[in-house]
Design a protein that fits this description.
Layout: H1 4-29, H2 33-47, E1 52-58, E2 64-71, H3 75-80, E3 82-84, H4 88-96, E4 100-102, E5 124-133, E6 136-146, H5 153-196, H6 209-222, E7 228-231, H7 238-247, E8 256-260, H8 266-274, E9 275-276, E10 288-289, H9 291-294, E11 299-303, H10 310-322, E12 324-326, E13 333-335, E14 339-344, H11 348-353, H12 359-365, E15 368-371, H13 382-396, E16 403-404, H14 406-414, H15 420-434, E17 439-440, H16 452-455, H17 463-481, H18 486-493, H19 497-507
Parallel strand pairs: 7-14, 7-15, 8-11, 11-14, 16-17
Antiparallel strand pairs: 1-2, 1-6, 2-3, 4-5, 5-6, 9-10, 12-13
Length: 518
């Protein structure tokens, strides 16, 4: 007999460890807490040979306690049973956050017996343990067992406390995960809404990060009266940027006058910009308004500003400073409320150092610079633009181009586009015209876009073979020029006679066949 008690205690400890391991596995494998609770309480009741058990959870909003999982209790009872905070043993545990153990429930006023267990069993003990996340009690785990000799309510309470802590930890981890997921979801929705509300000019195609930065600058400057200097390579779409700034400004209903400074001869550019009076020069048969006067109240776009002559730069500086000018040959000062947007593909800083561009004009123009990225820096926009131009020129030429082939796409996206968007547009227009099967193929693109693979002109020689061929050709040319004289040929090539002799042997050259009569 003395050995039976330790043996019984040992078996219980093994049972408890096995149960806790199984519960940890259940929690680890379950996708959510609801699916884990039923197997946990079932396993606990069966392993510890209890009568019944239940796990309850507190509804945060209704403050009502309901059975989420049970074993040994009729499903009909389990679904109907509800507790209020403070009601019965379960309600008290939720309210106080402290465990309650009762060795004999018979006659105990706190034991409400909503599951009608007294009808089934006598001499029952009841244990109810809080399930807590931090200081917050979120539910309970409770069990009933038949009171018998060797039974220890304290041991059962300890075991259920451990199980309750495991459930609470898993619930906390899942709650934290769900809260993080919810945060990410809300942040994603916020960012998506922010992107929807991002300013994007209707006249410009592009979704790349580089172009979005340009769009942000346009949005910032459009509502102001600041002078804008648009910088960028030829063909990047500087005029489109100017259009976007003007038509999103308060001057949108007023004129946008465009002047290409590089296209106008120096002799007439002053007249074009500022106008002239009748008789101001030969051919001035009547008074004529200049572009600044025509743009009054609106915007003037001065493209290729870096090509202005020094004289015109001085007069332009005055307009920027004083908002006034005189027509050529006139004395009347004309006030003009014009917003100036300038653009150039030239290196103005270099022109400054060379004395070809006025420093004071540069600083007056460079109030709000906007740099338009080259097409090679916005690769993700290439196919958007290609699709747009394909549709545009298909309609214009009564074609029905349905797609761009994969090889053509590869050529378009791998090319460096020195001519930028303008070059891309020209390539697509050409391809649309050439296509005969409603598809743009790689061979429809210009030779400059073709690769060695697409044209079958891959390099077949090794580098050494190519060097040898070039070396042989140069030696033959030198020998022909020297009429087969190896000494003269070596001198012409800048090599020694010894090396000349070695190369002759290497390439099998016979100088005698290259000798000519004088």
């Amino acid at each position: 007999m003395p050995d039976s008690i330790p043996s019984k205690h040992y078996r219980r400890k093994i049972q408890e460890l096995s149960l806790l391991f199984d519960i940890s596995q259940i929690l680890q494998k379950s996708e959510n807490m609801q699916t884990a609770l039923s197997p946990i309480i079932k396993h606990t009741v069966q392993t510890m040979e209890m009568l019944q058990g239940a796990i309850t959870l507190l509804n945060r909003h209704s403050r009502e306690i309901s059975i989420e999982a049970s074993y040994g209790i009729s499903e009909v009872f389990a679904e109907k049973i509800k507790y209020k905070v403070g009601e019965g043993i379960t309600g008290k545990v939720i309210e106080t956050g402290e465990p309650i153990t009762i060795e004999n429930v018979s006659g105990n006023p706190l034991f409400l017996d909503k599951t009608e267990s007294r009808k089934k069993w006598k001499n029952q003990s009841f244990i109810c343990i809080p399930v807590k996340i931090g200081t917050e009690t979120i539910g309970t785990i409770s069990c009933q067992r038949q009171t018998s000799e060797g039974f220890s309510i304290e041991e059962d309470a300890k075991l259920l406390s451990i199980i309750g802590s495991m459930i609470a930890l898993a619930a906390e981890l899942r709650r934290t995960y769900q809260e993080e997921q919810e945060k990410l979801k809300h942040e994603n929705e916020r960012l998506q809404n922010a992107l929807k509300n991002k300013f994007k000019p209707k006249n410009i195609i592009g979704s790349s990060t580089a172009m979005q930065e340009v769009f942000d600058l346009i949005a910032q400057v459009s509502g102001s009266e600041a002078t804008v200097l648009i910088r960028g390579e030829s063909g990047t779409g500087k005029e489109l940027i100017a259009n976007a700034i003007h038509y999103n400004s308060r001057r949108a209903d007023m004129p946008l006058i465009k002047v290409n400074c590089a296209a106008l001869p120096e002799t007439i550019i002053e007249s074009e910009l500022f106008g002239h009076e009748k008789g101001a020069f030969t051919g001035a048969l009547s008074t004529r308004k200049g572009r600044f006067e025509l743009a009054d109240g609106g915007t003037i776009f001065l493209d290729e500003i870096g090509d202005l002559s020094p004289t015109t730069q001085v007069k332009l500086l005055r307009i920027l400073q004083e908002k006034e000018f005189e027509r050529v040959g006139g004395n009347e000062t004309i006030k003009s409320s014009v917003r100036i947007i300038a653009a150039t593909n030239r290196d103005l800083e270099k022109l400054l150092t060379e004395g070809k561009f006025r420093e004071d004009l540069y600083y007056r123009l460079n109030v709000f610079p906007v740099h338009v990225p080259p097409l090679r820096s916005r690769k993700s926009d290439i196919m958007l633009l290609a699709d747009y131009f394909t549709e545009k020129y298909s309609k214009k030429n009564n074609k029905d181009i349905k797609r761009i082939s994969t090889p053509a796409i590869q050529l378009l996206t791998s090319y460096h586009w020195p001519g930028n968007v303008r070059e891309l547009e020209n390539c697509i227009e050409r391809a649309v015209l050439i296509s005969t099967d409603d598809v743009i193929h790689g061979n429809h693109l210009p030779p400059s876009l073709q690769s060695a693979e697409s044209t079958g002109t891959e390099i077949h020689n090794t580098l050494q073979q190519a060097i040898d061929e070039l070396e042989k050709e140069m030696i033959l040319d030198a020998l022909k020029s020297s009429h087969g004289n190896m000494t003269k040929a070596a001198k012409m090539l800048g090599i020694s006679e010894r090396i000349m002799g070695l190369r002759k042997s290497k390439f099998g050259i016979n100088p005698k066949t290259l000798t000519r009569e004088k």
